Amino acid sequence: MSRYDIAVIGTGPAGLEAALTAKARNKSVLLIGSAELSPKVAKAHMIRNYLGLPNVSGGEMQAAFLRQMEAAGIKITDERVKNVYAMGDYFVLQTGEIDSMLEAETLILATGLPLSRNLPGEDRFLGRGVSYCATCDGALYRGKRTAVIGYAPKEEDEADFLSELAAEVLYFPQYTGEVRTAPAVKVIPEKPVEILGGESARVLKTDGGEYEVDGIFILRDNIAPDKLVPGLELDGTRVKVTPQMETNIPGCFAAGDIAGPPYQYIKAAGQGNVAALAAVDYLAAKRKE
Amino acid sequence: MVNVIHEAEFGQVKACAAAVVDFSATWCGPCKMLAPVLEKISEEMKGKVDFFKADVDENPNLARQFAIQSIPALIFLKNGEEVGREIGFKPEAAVKSALQRVFD
Ligand SMILES: Cc1cc2nc3c(=O)[nH]c(=O)nc-3n(C[C@H](O)[C@H](O)[C@H](O)COP(=O)(O)OP(=O)(O)OC[C@H]3O[C@@H](n4cnc5c(N)ncnc54)[C@H](O)[C@@H]3O)c2cc1C
Cβ(A268) to ligand 1 under 6 A? Predict the structure, then answer.
């Protein structure tokens, strides 16, 4: 497995600019995120304050960004990162199962605005009956009662997987539209409000009732930065950064909405530029040692 | 060194003044990443803290006894008594500071 110089997670303006700058400085870059770029770019109505692109729609901005990536020869690895492991000298990015691991010496986090609202009880019981990954922890719930809270239709697969192991799977879809799960999965269209328990999670409380379970799987697209990168220091919900966009983990940088307000395209891109240059300096210093 | 342990030999762990048991499994990504971190720390703490590793699939009774619900789980023991636990992958600095909190 080859190890990249710089891995960039997120394909909004922060991540794209970081990748462009790193490439211009001749670094090997892994840019990972949606090939359709950020929904916050694509869906904007009219953008009036981005230098060089006056009065464009989000669609036009998206097209311009994609053209520039292509011209620079930057490929987008169209995947979601599930977990990042800071190994000391390098980072490992896990995109799926245990065998899909990618490595890079430095990391730039540009995953956008962190999710601010966890369920009450979620943090307290994480690892004590609350899990973010059915395929990872599912085997520990063999023959047990489980609840799965899915924030997107693709999580139905995780519920199906769990139903092969667990005695019971209650599925709480948090989206509209048809739900297609295996017959063993019981679909309950209610909204979770709290997780209760003692030593470990015991009860999922929703707007419609209370469900006694042994395990609760919360499957969202956007996980908090300190859950994505264990060990990362936050300031409230944003990642704590220096003016050079360094985080508390050596070799790990953050840029854009993830690093705090103001939430603006040009600021995100500017921070992506700073983060990439800081990563380049970090690599140079490390290689001199 | 991190010693692989089976539930039948758990008395060995209980006899240690300070021990860490890593509950993990072969199919678990974060466990695989935590292993080299623990290996390194175990060398640095040689003579102070003993490190063990228990596979949850091979040791279901032990896993149940410690109410393991998510892996990797690091259990800290002093003279056989649990004095703390850390769940999930943690970078080296974070594992070390957790160890210091418990054992220093
Ligand atoms: C409707 C709307 C209109 C706006 N209008 C303006 C405007 O006119 N002017 C202005 O300056 N700002 C505007 N903004 C704000 C602007 O959109 C944001 O500040 C900007 O997009 C932030 O860029 P970013 O790169 O930090 O993050 P984002 O653009 O949010 O991009 C982050 C990307 O990372 C991806 N990602 C997250 N987690 C992972 C993971 N684990 N693995 C892989 N990928 C991941 C996300 O899917 C997303 O594509 C607007 C926002 C909205 C919603």
Answer: yes
What CATH architecture does domain A3-115+222-288 belong to? 3-Layer(bba) Sandwich (3.50)
Per-domain boundaries in chain B: 2-103
A118, A116, A122: which is closest to A260 by C-alpha? A116
Q: Which of A116, A146, A115 is nearest to A130 (CA)?
A: A146
Domain spanning B2-103, CATH class: alpha beta
Q: Is there a catalytic annotation at residue B16?
A: no
- If you measure from the C-alpha of residue A241 to the centroid of ligand 1, how many angstroms do you get, rounded to a whole number? 18
Cross-strand pairs, A12: none
Q: Is the CB of A265 under 6 A from ligand 1?
A: yes
Ligand 1 probe mutation, A17, A21, A38, A154, most atoms within 8 A of CB: A38
Q: CA A85, CA A139: separation in Å to the nearest integer?
A: 22
Average pLDDT over residues A140-162: 93
**DSSP secondary structure code for residue A121 in this structure:** T
Q: Which of B25, B29, B94 comes nearest A83 by C-beta?
A: B29
How many pairs of residues across A and B have Cβ atoms under 8 Å apart?
67
Per-residue pLDDT tens digits for A167-180: 999 999 999 999 99
**How large is the ipTM?**
0.86
Contact B29 A136 (CB under 8 A): yes
Q: Does domain A122-219 have CATH number 3.50.50.60?
A: yes
Could you state, in order of their start, the residue ranges of all structural domains in chain A? 3-115+222-288, 122-219
Q: What pLDDT, on a 0 to 100 scale, did the predictor assign at position A158?
A: 92
